[in-house]
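Lecture 7, part 2: worked example. A protein chain together with N-oxalylglycine.
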Amino acid sequence: MGERNQSVQSIASSALDTDTIPAEFIFPKVEQPGVNTFDGPVPEIPTVDLSDPDKENRTRSIVRAAKEWGFFQVVNHGIPGHVITKLQEAGTEFFGLPQEEKEVYAKPPDAKSIEGYGTKLSKGTQSWADHLFHKIWPPSSINYQFWPQNPPSYREANEEYAKYVKEVADEVFRSISIGLGLKDHESVLKEAVGGEDLQYMMKINYYPPCPRPDLAFGVPPHTDLSALTILVPNEVPGLQVFQDDHWIDVQYIPNALVIHIGDQIQIATNGYYKSVLHRTTVDKNKVRMSWPVFLEPPGEFVVGPIPQLLSEDNPPKYKPKMFKDYAYCKLNKLPQ
Ligand code: OGA
Ligand code: NI
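Predicted complex, written out as structure tokens:
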């Protein structure tokens, strides 16, 4: 595998009227989405109404969903529809710019951080997606060089979304922390993964139309290395989660946010909550996009099982580790 600088977007536009895709995008038969997507009655993925005035009920629903699925959608979450629409419009306009204009924000070749525009070069089969990464919170962590200047609305749209998404994150952290049943319950989990220093990494996924959606993936199966992921999709379905040995389609609910439990929460809770295995398929005719925000501990922050959770019956399953070392091992497929 050599270096590929070409975006999947431009590969896709030259494949538009064909019914083939380059071999490097074709997954082995048994892994292909056309072969192993579950096609039958499926259990319903939980949806939690965050405007439920009964706080205990709200907490209970979040805890149950996080425990049983590691994955759920939230509605009536307090982020105004226009804030989400603006975020989507700004990102969509950016990906609509000519290739040279997007390349201005390209991830520098030897950069340590993942920030910038690009396409993931996997060791194995390639993904049918381009992306843009940049931090949106806390303000001191932001590198504006990776925020598009065009469209001009981009900055305000992202700054506004960041303020609101923080509120949702705090509510989720509070609830699943209470679910652990510890004494100083409300804040213990968030503190264990970075507290107020948590970094919010925005990613825009751009999945161009694909002539053979049965053979390729937007993102192959993985768990997120974040603590928590909060995602806005567009209206084109494609996200699937793995539950009870089946890949299940996630239904698109307008204005809902998709929440994933990530690896750092699994580690901090010694496996009480589990990070969910998920993947994305692509569409034959439509562009799919999504805006996950990954809530990550600072690089030097050590995450390990919360001591109060451990006992003789519940010995530690994970080694405490700096987040940056965890990320390095995971990205390079090394043992943790
Ligand atoms: C990811 C991811 C899901 C989606 O980028 O890690 O899982 O719906 N994306 O695009
Ligand atoms: Ni993911």
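The chain has nine helices and 14 strands. The pocket of N-oxalylglycine (ligand 1) is lined by residues 203, 205, 219, 224, 231, 233, 239, 278, 280, 290, 292 (CB under 6 Å). Keep this in mind for problem set question 3.
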